[in-house]
Design a protein that fits this description.
The protein is 18% helix and 29% strand. The protein is globular and about 80 Å long. The strands form 5 sheets. It has an 11-stranded mixed β-sheet, with helices on both faces. Strands 14, 15, 16, 18, 19, 25, 26, 28 and 29 form a 9-stranded antiparallel β-sheet that branches. Helix 3 (156-170) crosses helix 4 (186-196). It is an alpha+beta fold.
């Protein structure tokens, strides 16, 4: 660990635990897997002979040794390498078997026959990439399994490790000297860090939904501690030493400071070509992926899909698209990739058919216009002009449904694309702080909520299936359905960052200012990026609450504690022009 941060640590989860499901440590063992080989029953058969080198040593500048599994085409030809970096364990016996197989036995609609099972989950499948002349290198990060050292949790030390590992891979005798990086989630987050270190042999990256700010995106979004998912990830890290514990460290360092800043890579330093994939529906990665893409300084392409990160990553059409990108920058194939639109974006349309892969020059599109809709507590409406009369609406935290709604019916088709911003005047009774959760949702003409399905569950699109399925115990409901963009704020940590761009507002979260019960304060709550369409007659609902109204991100996670207090009040009109600013596109 980096001593100056004084981060808390804990023992990594033991390799002796049965759920580790980890094969023997076998440095130097090389096996040729013949064409037709199946790693597991029902899996995709290898289309070509594949050389598997187990636990290849990768030395780092401080003498630490990491270990990687290499899958490469048989033969003497030099090939480029694609790196998958994570602390979960090499191969499909890693993160997938450690928890997700139990929670999501249907693999989110990904047929077992689509992949070989040799891939790191959320990483490249060697069966496909070896067929097309690439090696796939699965690296166990520092401290993970048999890699030496202690496990870092998205730190600058991990970034330096990635730099050194990439250079060591480029020097392996079979490597052409060109290295790319790919993968989803942690495998994407690691790419921001690695590329910002500018390894000489890194030629291209393809981060597939990866946050880049642990504190703001996940652990304490809006300043509200949300420890369950980061703790789940921490506990899925197996090794022989210690693991950095940001969940415990948050108790010591509750505000953004140099420790948390150390976990934010400077993506503006990234110069290699980047193919970035994002979605609007991911409770972990959405904001960070868009933020990182926006700050990249090199050639970059963004594709925003309308499904879930896992089926999107393994969808054959998208795998082919990724290969065109890597063929261009790892093999110098003149295939016209540069003509790919800079942005290909989905527009969600719950209850109707989504727009997919619409070509744009930027996100949000330059023609976007911010439009304010003012809250009015008298009729719970959202109006084009602020009300002259002051009014207020409140909810009691002890109620079963502590929430208040404001609704706007659209007379014409309306499309938004960008980052909504909510500005409120609020007060609280019974406590010196309050947590606010905001949701923008789509209703049909009759007022029924319309849901976007990210995973095909065989249900009619758009209808209000989520509450029914949740009651019936369908455990993947949180990731399978999306109601609209949301935002959260602990009011004592209010205030936008000084350098926050107008079209992409960000909270500062570096200071705490408690409130006096009963006093009215102004707050800004950025929602996460979205593109969504309402048809004439359909309604937009802004729902405000004192607690999260979303189901747990994973079925086994516990809800985070609710801030104490008695009543929250939203003030509107007159001196308190509470408003929702939407990024509206011209008709």
């Amino acid at each position: 660990m980096t001593p100056s941060w004084k981060a808390r640590t804990r023992p990594a989860t033991s390799l002796d635990r049965p759920e580790a499901r980890y094969g023997e440590f076998a440095p130097g063992r090389t096996t040729v897997l013949p064409a037709g080989y199946r790693y597991q029953r029902g899996a995709l058969a290898l289309p070509v002979d594949v050389v598997c080198e187990k636990d290849v040593a990768l030395p780092l500048r401080d003498g630490t040794i990491l270990y990687a599994d290499v899958f490469r085409p048989a033969g003497e030809a030099s090939v480029p390498a694609i790196v998958n970096w994570a602390p979960y364990g090499k191969g499909d016996t890693g993160f997938w078997h450690l928890g997700n197989a139990k929670m999501f036995p249907n693999r989110f609609g990904i047929p077992r026959s689509r992949v070989s099972g040799l891939q790191s989950w959320e990483g490249n499948d060697p069966a496909y990439w070896c067929l097309h002349g690439y090696a796939v290198v699965q690296v166990d990060a520092r401290g993970a399994f048999d890699s030496q050292g202690d496990i870092e949790y998205l730190s600058s030390q991990e970034a330096r490790d990635e730099h050194d590992a990439i250079e060591a891979i480029a020097a392996l005798p079979w490597c052409s000297g060109r290295v790319g990086a790919s993968g989803n989630s942690w495998l994407a987050m690691s790419q921001w860090r690695a590329a910002a270190e500018r390894p000489a042999h890194l030629a291209a990256i393809a981060p597939w939904e990866g946050m880049n700010d642990l504190y703001r995106d996940t652990l304490a979004r809006g300043g509200v501690p949300r420890a369950a998912f980061p703790a789940f990830i921490r506990d899925m890290m197996f090794g022989r030493g210690e693991v950095e514990d940001p969940v415990a460290t948050l108790e010591d360092r509750p505000l953004v400071d140099d420790y948390w800043e150390d976990k934010i890579p400077d993506v503006s330093r990234i110069e290699v070509p980047a193919y970035v994939v994002a979605s609007y529906t991911n409770q972990v990665h959405t904001a960070g992926t868009f933020r990182a893409w926006d700050r990249l300084s090199g050639p970059k392409w963004l594709r925003v899909h309308n499904t879930h990160e896992w089926p999107d990553y393994y969808e054959p059409r998208n795998v082919e698209d990724l290969r065109r990108f890597f063929d261009r920058y790892l093999k110098d194939v003149d295939n016209g990739w540069e003509a790919t639109p800079p942005v290909r974006m989905a527009v969600l349309d719950p209850g109707h058919k989504d727009v997919v892969d619409r070509a744009e020059a930027h996100f949000p599109p330059a023609r976007m216009t911010p439009v304010d809709f003012f809250l009015d507590a008298r009729d719970h409406g959202l109006s084009a002009a602020p009300a002259a009369a002051e009014s207020a609406a409140s909810y009691v935290l002890a109620d079963d449904r502590p929430q208040v709604d404001f609704v706007r019916r659209f007379d014409t088709d309306t499309e938004i694309a960008g980052v909504p911003l909510l500005t409120l005047w609020v007060s609280a009774e019974g406590h010196d702080d309050l947590d606010l959760y905001a949701y923008v949702e789509k209703l049909d003409a009759q007022g029924h909520q319309l849901w976007h399905q990210t995973v095909d569950l065989g249900l009619p699109a758009g209808r209000s299936w989520m509450p029914l399925l949740h009651r019936r115990g369908v455990r993947q409901v949180a990731a399978a359905f999306y109601g609209g963009p949301d935002g959260v704020l602990r009011v004592s940590r209010r205030g936008l960052a000084p350098d926050s761009p107008v079209e992409r507002p960000e909270l500062d979260l570096r200071q705490e200012r408690k409130i006096t019960p009963g006093d009215i304060v102004e707050v800004d709550i950025p929602l996460w990026p979205v593109a969504m369409r309402w048809h004439a007659g359909e309604q937009l609902r802004l729902r405000l609450s004192g607690r999260s109204l979303l189901p747990a991100l994973l079925p086994n996670l516990t809800a985070d504690p609710v801030q104490p207090g008695v009543r929250h009040t939203v003030h509107t009109g007159g001196r308190h022009p509470s408003r929702l600013r939407l990024p509206v596109l011209p008709a």
